[in-house]
From TrEMBL:
<protein>
    <submittedName>
        <fullName>GNAT family N-acetyltransferase</fullName>
    </submittedName>
</protein>
<dbReference type="GO" id="GO:0005737">
    <property type="term" value="C:cytoplasm"/>
</dbReference>
<dbReference type="InterPro" id="IPR000182">
    <property type="entry name" value="GNAT_dom"/>
</dbReference>
<dbReference type="InterPro" id="IPR016181">
    <property type="entry name" value="Acyl_CoA_acyltransferase"/>
</dbReference>
<feature type="domain" description="N-acetyltransferase">
    <location>
        <begin position="3"/>
        <end position="167"/>
    </location>
</feature>
<dbReference type="GO" id="GO:0008999">
    <property type="term" value="F:protein-N-terminal-alanine acetyltransferase activity"/>
</dbReference>
<dbReference type="GO" id="GO:1990189">
    <property type="term" value="F:protein N-terminal-serine acetyltransferase activity"/>
</dbReference>
<dbReference type="InterPro" id="IPR051908">
    <property type="entry name" value="Ribosomal_N-acetyltransferase"/>
</dbReference>
<dbReference type="Pfam" id="PF13302">
    <property type="entry name" value="Acetyltransf_3"/>
</dbReference>
């Protein structure tokens, strides 16, 4: 494993801002670019949102961020994944490794330090090839199409909905690397 994951802390604010600023061009094509968002993100952590920062183990650089958001428990135990990877790690496979750790943690029982979720969704704009490739690499299935689902870049954008349930998850170490 070239990466590790952990929850954000206020002390990550500068590293986070640098990474987002460096990556503004490719992140900004699909997601808001918010270099100063980390302190607020830390404050919002709780029952409905858990954020994971993905770090390169050797260099300690920030590879990416994944939000496990809209967490609903009860009979649903469901959440949505939203993610960005940062330069210089973009396209090196590290983000995929980190996302496997995030999915693994999201599905792991709460008694074992996980989030105890049963189903995860990834909603992607149909033109976002790298993100669709990520969803498929992780084993997510295309479930459907959601017109005008999210307000991004000043318009309500259609999204493809990918999903995975814990029964389908082989574990973070399984599957091909590319
Ligand atoms: C979507 C996004 C997170 C993907 O991140 P990424 O940095 O490309 O992820 P990875 O590096 O793990 O991607 C693997 C790619 O690197 C390649 N790669 C290079 N070296 C690799 C290695 N050693 N191991 C595995 N893959 C490797 C893979 O072949 C793969 O390429 P492919 O997508 O053409 O198949 C990133 O493009 C991004 O931040 N996009 C902007 C924001 C965004 O769209 N977010 C999602 C909204 S739904």
């Amino acid at each position: 494993m070239r990466v590790e994951i952990r929850y954000p802390r206020i002390a990550d604010a500068v590293v986070y801002a640098d990474a987002v600023n460096r990556s503004a061009e490719h992140v900004g094509r699909w997601n808001p670019v918010e270099p100063d968002a980390l302190p607020d993100m830390v404050r919002r952590q709780g029952d409905t949102l858990r954020t994971f920062l993905i770090f390169d183990v050797e260099e300690r650089g920030l590879v990416g961020t994944c939000n496990v958001s809209n967490i609903v428990r009860g009979r649903f135990r469901n959440a949505s994944l939203g993610y960005n990877s940062y330069l210089p790690y973009n396209g090196t496979g590290r983000m995929t490794e980190g996302m496997r750790l995030v999915v693994d943690t999201a599905f792991r029982p709460e008694t074992e330090g996980g989030l105890g979720l049963h189903r995860l969704e990834i909603n992607v704009q149909p033109e976002n090839g790298p993100s669709i490739a990520m969803a498929k690499r992780l084993g997510f299935r295309l479930e459907g199409y959601s017109p005008r689902m999210l307000f991004l870049q000043n318009a309500w954008r259609d999204h493809e909905r990918y999903a995975l349930t814990v029964e389908e998850w082989p574990g973070a170490g399984a599957g091909s690397r590319s």
